[in-house]
Amino acid sequence: MKQEIILCRSLATDLERVLQQQSFDKLFLLTDEATHRCCAPLLGEALLGQVEEVVIPAGDTHKTLDTLASVWQALSCRGATRRSMLINLGGGMVTDLGGFAASTFKRGIGYLNIPTTLLAMVDAAVGGKTGINFNGLKNEIGVFNPAAYVLLDTAFLRTLDRPNLLSGYAEMLKHGLISTVAHWAELLNVEIADTVCVDYDALRAPVRRSVQVKEEIVAQDPLEQGLRKALNLGHTVGHAFESLAMAEHRAVLHGYAVAWGLVCELYLSNRLVGFPVGKMRQTVDFIRERYGTFTFDCNDYETLYELMTHDKKNRAGVIHFTLLREVGEICLDQTADKELIFEMLDFYRENGVG
Ligand code: GLY
After folding, report:
1. Which end of the chain is more exposed for a tag (fewer CB within 10 A), N or C?
2. Domain boundaries 4-159, CATH class
3. Alpha helices in the chain, H assignment, sequence order
4. What is the pTM of this model?
5. Residue 5 forms beta bridges with which residues?
6. Which of 187, 28, 62 is nearest to 118 (CA)?
7. What is the residue extent of each domain of the chain?
8. Bridge pairing between strands 110-115 and 137-141
């Protein structure tokens, strides 16, 4: 199913134009407590006057079956039909959960995504992955079903603090690593030192390029049978870090976990398929300076290993990694034995970060 991505100049105008092309009987808007306050007003009074808004609690800890049920409940009680449409306005939590709610309500209603975080703009809201966390595992339940449109407005980036900007930037860095040396090098040169100095207009071009990297891959492999696994670089270990943090009630932003996962998986890339040490060091140093450290000790290795065995890319219980031979040279379905995975975790703790 085709998904149209629009890099907006004026969100309210572009949204109005998109909605005029859609046929629906009732329009719903899903926000969280933060986007309800900071972002919904940017949609314009005309639109806000015609939507039924559903507000959910903010944060990944609420990406649960209970929150999902509350959205189904609101849609059902407030008269949504199969011809209704849902607009998801928020970060990845809102677009993932809202996309799943829309995909399952009355067997599926249409939906649009308006991502408000950098992470959602370049990754979560694009490409049709929807879902919720379940049983202590990230995105354990969900379906592939793209939004009809994704409207990107980089003006929302001004609402983000530095950690949230950096969180999205980690996914951009991943797109750089799996695409071209030029894009990777461009990303290592953009500075997000503090939000006061960020040149938001200068971010438009790398954001556009980053979304294109993802779009091109998703167009070739929408259901992640092969090439789309490239988008999982850094995520096998990153999701294990995130799940460990979730179990220990430590707040970790997704992109930070991905950045730390990239450190580990570039180490594996070097050891298994010869990713150049110099490029590994440049990337690891960039991450170390901006994303700091995820702390764990060798008593956590078994737990982290066990968490990696739940990765969706695995086959027959064997952990499968996406690795790189070079920037842009992707090696899918790579395996590593437990000893090497533990060595990778040693590298992370001793040399990689901190
Ligand atoms: N976030 C990775 C993907 O959409 O495939």
Report:
1. N
2. alpha beta
3. 11-20, 33-38, 45-48, 65-77, 92-104, 118-119, 162-178, 181-189, 204-220, 235-247, 254-273, 277-291, 301-308, 338-347
4. 0.93
5. 150
6. 187
7. 4-159, 162-352
8. unpaired
- Going by alpha carbons, the residue nearest to atom 3 of ligand 1 is 231
Q: What is the pLDDT of residue 195?
A: 63
To test the ligand 1 pocket, which listed residue (138, 167, 231) has its Cβ within 8 A of the most ligand atoms? 231
Between CA 32 and CA 58 the distance in angstroms is 5
> CA angle, corner 183, sides to 335 and 39, nearest 5?
95
- What is the per-residue burial (b if ≥16 Cβ within 10 Å, else e) of 70-89? bbeebbeeeebeeebbbbbb
Residue owning the nearest CA to atom 5 of ligand 1: 231
Q: Burial level of 2, CB count in 10 A (0-12/13-18/19+)? A: exposed
Phi and psi at residue 18, to the nearest 5°? -65, -45
DSSP-based three-state secondary structure for 53: strand
At 101-113, the pLDDT tens digits run 999 999 999 999 9
Distance CA 127, CA 92 (A): 12
Task: Single out the residue of 11, 351, 44, 339 nearest to residue 157, CA to CA.
Answer: 11
- At the second CATH level, the architecture of 162-352 is Up-down Bundle (1.20)
